[in-house]
C-alpha cells in the first residue's frame, strides 16, 4: 500500500465511491415517494364518499363496483398503515374500525372499513411503501460501484505512474559498469520524453566511464617511461641509503600504476562466465598464500559452483584474503550455503576500520592509515578491484567490524 500507484488508486476509488454515493442519496431524496402520513387523509376522504354512497343506495354502489362483504379482507396486516387510516378517518369524518392488509394473491394493499350495517367495505388503496428487497438492490448497486471504480482507478493509476515505473526499472537494470540499458522510446508523450532523457543520461554515463578508464590507463602507462629514467638515474647515486630510498619510492609508484591499469582492465573486462567451483578457487588461494608464509586458514569448504571466470574470481578473493592476512594478523576463510546462495566470510583479528570510514573502503586508493603505507605494500586498490569483479558476476560484498576486534568481509554469490 506504500506505492504511489496504490495510493492514487485508493484515492480515485474513494473519490468515485463518495461522489456516486452522494449522488445516489440526493436522487433518492428527490425521487422519494410521499410519506403515508401525507397521503392517507385524501384516501380517507374518498372512503367517506364511498361510505355515503353505500348508505344512500347500497344496490347502486355495488353496481358501480363497490365491494362489500361480511368480514375484512384477508392478508398480512399492516399495523402502522392501519393506525394511520383510522386516524385519518377520524380527522376527516366519523371514526370507524378499519384495517389495512397486504394482498396475498396480487401486489398492493387493501383497506377494510366496518360499516354500521355490519358489512365491511373493501377498497384498494395506494401503496407508497418502499419496494421490497430495496436493501439488496442498494447493496448490489454499491458493490457494482466499488468494482467499477476499482477497475477504472487501477487502470488510471497505472497510466499515471508508468513514467515512474520506467525510471524504477531503468535504475534497477543498471549494470556493474554504472550504465543504464537502452529504454524503448514508445508510449505517451511524457513516457517518450522520460525514455529519451534516460537514454541520453546513459550515453553520457558511458562516455564518462570510458573517458575515465582511458585517462587512468593512459596515466598509468605514461608514468612508466619517466619512472624508468628515474630508476636508471637512481642506480648511479653514490650513497647506498639515498639510492635505496629512491628505489623504494619508485617501486611504490610502479605498484600504484600497475594497480590502476588492472582496475581499468577489470572494469572493461568481459571474461567468459562458466561454472566455477568456489571451494576449489578458495583452496588454491589458501595453499598459495600459505606457501608465502601468510597466516591463512580455510574452514567448512563445500562443493559449490557459481557462474564466474575462474581467473577473475581468484584475483578478487585473493585480494580480500591478502587484505585480512596482512592487515588483520591472519585470515580465516569459511563458506556457508543458504538456499541458492553461497556465502564466503573472511574474518581476521586486526584493529578493524573506524566506523565512520567503513563506507569508503571500496574507494580506489583508499587507505585507512596513510602512515602505514611504507610498512605495508599496496596501492589501496585491492578492495576496489575485488568489488568490481564480484559485482560483475552478480555477487555482493560487505565489510563490517567484528567484536571485540577484527574485520569481517562477506561475499555472496548465486549458486548453480
Provide a descriptive summary of the structure in words.
There is one protein chain. The protein has 416 residues and is an alpha+beta fold. Helix content is 54%, strand content 15%. The chain contains eleven helices and twelve strands. It has helices spanning 4-30, 36-56, 58-63, 79-92, 134-160, 162-172, 189-235, 240-268, 278-290, 310-327, 382-392; strands spanning 67-69, 76-77, 98-102, 109-114, 120-125, 274-277, 296-299, 305-308, 331-338, 341-348, 396-401, 407-414. The strands form three sheets. It has a five-stranded antiparallel beta sheet with strand order 1-5-4-3-2, covered by helices on one side. Strands 7-9-10-12-11 form a five-stranded mixed beta sheet. A hairpin with a 5-residue loop joins strand 4 and strand 5. Helix 1 packs antiparallel against helix 5 and helix 10 (310-327) runs antiparallel to helix 11. The radius of gyration is 46 Å and the shape is rod-shaped. It starts with a helix and ends with a strand. Residues 370-376 have low confidence and may be disordered.
Amino acid at each position: 500500500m506504500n506505492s504511489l500507484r496504490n495510493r492514487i488508486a485508493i484515492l480515485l476509488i474513494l473519490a468515485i465511491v463518495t461522489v456516486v454515493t452522494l449522488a445516489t442519496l440526493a436522487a433518492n431524496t428527490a425521487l422519494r415517494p410521499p410519506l403515508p402520513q401525507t397521503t392517507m387523509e385524501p384516501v380517507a376522504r374518498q372512503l367517506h364518499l364511498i361510505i355515503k354512497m353505500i348508505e344512500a343506495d347500497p344496490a347502486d354502489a355495488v353496481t358501480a363496483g363497490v365491494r362489500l362483504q361480511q368480514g375484512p379482507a384477508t392478508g398480512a396486516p399492516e399495523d402502522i398503515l392501519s393506525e394511520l387510516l383510522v386516524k385519518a378517518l377520524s380527522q376527516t369524518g366519523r371514526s370507524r374500525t378499519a384495517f389495512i392488509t397486504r394482498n396475498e394473491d396480487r401486489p398492493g394493499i387493501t383497506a377494510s372499513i366496518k360499516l354500521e350495517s355490519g358489512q365491511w367495505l373493501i377498497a384498494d388503496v395506494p401503496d407508497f411503501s418502499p419496494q421490497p428487497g430495496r436493501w439488496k438492490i442498494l447493496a448490489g448497486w454499491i458493490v457494482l460501484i466499488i468494482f467499477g471504480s476499482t477497475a477504472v482507478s487501477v487502470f488510471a493509476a497505472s497510466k499515471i505512474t508508468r513514467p515512474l515505473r520506467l525510471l524504477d526499472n531503468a535504475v534497477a537494470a543498471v549494470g556493474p559498469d554504472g550504465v543504464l540499458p537502452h529504454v524503448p522510446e514508445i508510449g505517451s508523450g511524457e513516457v517518450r520524453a522520460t525514455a529519451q532523457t534516460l537514454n541520453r543520461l546513459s550515453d553520457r554515463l558511458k562516455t564518462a566511464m570510458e573517458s575515465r578508464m582511458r585517462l587512468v590507463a593512459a596515466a598509468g602507462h605514461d608514468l612508466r617511461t619517466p619512472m624508468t629514467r628515474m630508476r636508471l638515474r637512481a642506480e648511479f647515486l653514490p650513497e647506498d641509503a639515498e639510492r635505496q630510498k629512491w628505489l623504494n619510492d619508485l617501486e611504490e609508484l610502479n605498484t600504484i600504476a600497475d594497480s590502476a591499469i588492472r582496475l581499468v582492465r577489470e572494469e572493461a573486462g568481459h571474461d567468459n562466465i562458466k561454472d566455477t567451483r568456489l571451494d576449489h578457487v578458495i583452496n588454491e588461494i589458501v595453499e598459495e598464500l600459505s606457501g608465502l608464509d601468510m597466516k591463512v586458514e580455510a574452514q567448512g569448504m563445500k562443493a559449490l559452483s557459481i557462474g564466474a571466470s575462474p581467473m577473475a574470481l581468484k584475483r578478487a578473493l585473493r585480494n580480500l584474503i591478502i587484505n585480512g592476512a596482512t592487515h588483520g594478523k591472519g585470515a580465516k576463510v569459511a563458506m556457508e550455503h543458504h538456499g541458492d546462495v553461497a556465502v564466503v566470510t573472511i574474518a581476521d583479528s586486526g584493529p578493524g576500520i573506524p566506523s565512520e570510514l567503513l563506507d569508503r573502503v571500496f574507494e580506489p586508493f583508499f587507505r585507512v592509515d596513510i602512515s602505514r603505507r611504507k610498512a605495508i605494500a599496496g596501492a589501496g586498490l585491492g578492495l576496489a578491484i575485488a568489488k568490481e569483479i564480484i559485482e560483475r558476476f552478480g555477487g555482493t560484498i560487505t565489510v563490517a567490524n567484528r567484536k571485540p576486534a577484527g574485520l569481517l568481509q562477506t561475499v555472496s554469490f548465486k549458486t548453480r
